[in-house]
Design goal:
The protein has about 110 residues and is mainly α. It has helices spanning about 5-20, 25-30, 35-40, 50-60, 65, 75-85, 90-105. The chain has two domains: about 5-70, 434 Repressor (Amino-terminal Domain); about 75-105.
């Protein structure tokens, strides 16, 4: 299991639940087994672009939205990623990030 597989699996689970689908329901929509969907959601399998397209279609999202899973990382990894992003920011972006974070974290 890679960090990417785990984050992508969590993203798929989040999107599926938002749409009120069970693993069985999604599996039926895309023509696969619920066991396979479960394995994907736990980050235990690599899957093809073809399957990714089917999952995205079954969830009524585009591939970019399906793969937008950086926020699905655990807290420690998110803190590291945020720190890396902030470290590379110019002064204008850093000030904007500060204002947004201050507003959110109040």
């Amino acid at each position: 299991m890679t960090e990417t597989n785990i984050a992508l699996g969590k993203r798929i689970r989040t999107l599926r639940k938002r749409r009120g689908l069970t693993q069985e329901g999604l599996a039926e929509k895309i023509g696969t087994s619920s066991k396979y969907i479960g394995e994907i959601e736990r980050g235990r399998v690599n899957f093809s672009v073809d399957i990714a397209e089917k999952i995205a279609g079954g969830l009524d999202v585009g591939l970019p939205e399906l793969f937008d899973c950086g926020h699905e990382l655990d807290s420690a990894k998110l803190r590291t990623k945020i720190g890396e992003m902030v470290q590379d920011a110019d002064d204008k972006a850093l000030k904007a990030v500060y204002r947004v974070m201050k507003a959110i974290l109040r």
